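Subject: sequence -> structure tokens, single chain

Hey, anyone have a minute? Need the predicted structure for the following. Not urgent.
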Amino acid sequence: MVRVGVQNNLLHAIETNWASFLISAAVIVGLYWLTRYKISFGYRVLIGLGAGIVIGILFHATSLAYDSVKTIGQIYVNLVKMIVMPLVFLSIISSIVTISNPNQLRKVGLKTIGWFLLTTGIAAIIGLLVALAFDPGAGIARDAAENAAPREIPTFSQVILDLTPTNPFGDLAEGRVVPVIVFALLFAVAIVRVGSRKPEAVQPVRQFIESAQQIMFQVVKSVIRLTPYGVYTLVAAMAARYGAETLKPLILLVVATYVALLLHFVLTFGGLVAFVAKVDPLKFLRKVYPTVAVAFTTRSSYATLPINLEVITKRLRVSPRIASFVAPLGATMNMNGCGGVWPAIVAVFVARVYGIDLTFTDDLLLVVIAVISSIGVAGVPGPASISTTVVLTALGLPLEGLGLVLAIDSLVDMGRTAVNATGTTVTSLLVANAEGEFDRAAFDRDREDELELNTA
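Reply:
Had a minute. Here:
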């Protein structure tokens, strides 16, 4: 009976998904053949993005089943998740053990976290100003908000406990990034301290870490080569799921969010790159666009981490030591989009829906709480929603209003994640420049590295 059930499920899947599967197979073959014409990895990702939007809209308009496309995209996401935890663990340890001076490690850490918090605060201010200008809550029915269920917010003690490692192997298996980072930091610092007294005692461990990291990088490259195909399937499935008619009441909120994200991208990131790092912003953007494209389509800072490490070291010419420290930390703590722009816009939106006036003091409190919450929710699932809940609670706004924006969360999350990931590349550049570990001459030669990903 079980075998008959499996056969029936297979037949049903073929009958309902054959059209979308054949169309997607043709697109994937087309993306594969682009490698024969030496089309770069970044351009193939963007082509996959465009094809996913067009094909997804076609699926939605014709009501074609797209489960097969969604499944392929999920396989890609699962493969990326497979490499993230060992990559984070090995990268953190490798970056620390190369620093023999603890004071230097402390200096790099403070600069990294400082830039994360400063840019998140600026993002919250930009989100607040754009929301006040667009007034996206005007005309939204309050009844809809009253029917939405509030999201539970973790207590402060629970947040602290969630950040503390218990069983490092269990944390690795469960994908709890922050506890893994904490354990990796403790492990690496212990290697440095023991090595300063007994170098021969830690030499085998150092060699194992170096060897394991090289092997892991090869695994990462094999998975990331699938990104153009994964991007196509993920975007096609999303475009097939959402129709314009479901977004009409909230379209102004989507527009306001992307305007704020774009302003932060151009003004904050562009300004820091141009005036602090003294680098051409347009050249910087051209070099980091693979990170932006992958972050936009996967909607995951963790999924973007492998390609971000490649971009930071091979395109931005930041030293692997700085990149291996900043990038994994940024995937967890850098919340410019999720913890800065989004909570500010939603707070103004909810206040407008419920007819609550925000004072100047409330606006200042909003920015401060957004920065603080971006630290407190590190590693907590759904950081954008949690950060927003913290801000709404601090301002005394109804948590039920958050339910109104859930319909568009997936759409704005693409932009939020792209800003988060780009912020990490900017911070890597700033820290490396301050530490003298940015190869400006190599960067200015304007030679684009192929990231070792231009094969099928």
